[in-house]
Amino acid sequence: GAVVVLRGDEAHKEAILGVWEAFIALPTHVRFFLSLAIFAMTYFGAGMFVAAPAKQSEEATAASPSSSSASTIDAKEVFKTPASCDNVVGFDVPSSLPANEKEFFDFMLDKLQEEIIKDTGDHYEMKTEALNWINEMITYNVKGGKMNRGLACVDCFATMIRARENRELTNKERCQAAALGWALEFLQAFFLVADDIMDESVTRRGQPCWYRLPNIHMIAINDSFILETCVYKILKRYFGHEPYYYQLVDLFLETTRQTEYGQLMDLTSQPLDGEKDLNRFTMERYKTIVRYKTAFYSFYLPVAAGMIMAGISQPKAFQQAREILLIMGEYFQVQDDYLDCYGDPSVIGKIGTDIQDNKCCWLVVTALNKANAAQRQVLEANYGIKNKKKEAVIKKLYVEMGIEADFKAYEEESYSEIQRLLANVKDVPHAVFTNFLDKIYKRAK
Fold it and tell me: Is the pTM of this model over 0.90?
């Protein structure tokens, strides 16, 4: 106080000293309560001042269109990305939607495809030739699959809403759930177009691989990138106004990263230059490849995305789901390896190439683990060579070694383990997992 008085001019000094002398002259109990009142006004007044912007922010938020009050969201109010050219957020909810879920899911792809093509022309200066190319490319590579991942995402969300809120989805929620499912299918198409090039595959879904078409070839690499961008275009339009939007974006980005790491482990499972080395085909390496290349995006992603959309936020719920779904994903890939060798191409939609491509698959890893010296020699001499006769030798050896029986035993062990883990799940309806499992258990394609 003395420092402040000495630094002021004479008028200020006299005024301050007068107030101070009057304060000192007051009785002790009066000075105490007066000091308390001054302190309280200062503290709470400052608190109300600091809180004022938050109140204003709440009022502004309340004034903005919400996801529940408008079919078409005003992007300018709720989603601001000033650095971007394309800020399309929001979607129209058709007044009438197909009741059948598969028909509705197909209907939504047509809607999404139309929106993507329109926005590509409106915001990215692409002309008719490029738009027709993208449209045909999406039709060829996204349509025609089993849609297991996308439909599982829709089913997961609907199942959780029924269990948690005892109601069916609104039309708006149905559109969002289907859009999320198709975002996953576009991601799948991106992976498959690129994977077919790397594996030099011949067919996909009963037709020539996209890169095999005479007017496509290596343009398919760029097309795969375009398919990936469609994922984030869909997420931005249908979820940009949702508070969990960034959780979805982060989940899709992380899943893409995990899948690409799994692909790297797969592609480098053998030396790129030099002789093949079957010693590198270990069960540990195989499980890592499967977990990252297949299980995260095919099993965990559909369920985790649906859980996010349903408002689940408990880390334990995601940890339990991840553990179960990674086992399920490994089982699915082991099935895929089995079908690559024994499946009917007219049923599974592709010609198996794992043996000739020297793939680190479950069958060869299992065979290597149980082979005697003579069987090992047969594997070394015939596996991983692009020759139909040598492929037939390996398939015959698998029969002699009882690999099919090993697969059946593994299938039952995996099923039992999933059932055991399900018993501990409390936060997510069991139907989310069992519906998924029922679609793949003992599948033929």
Answer: no
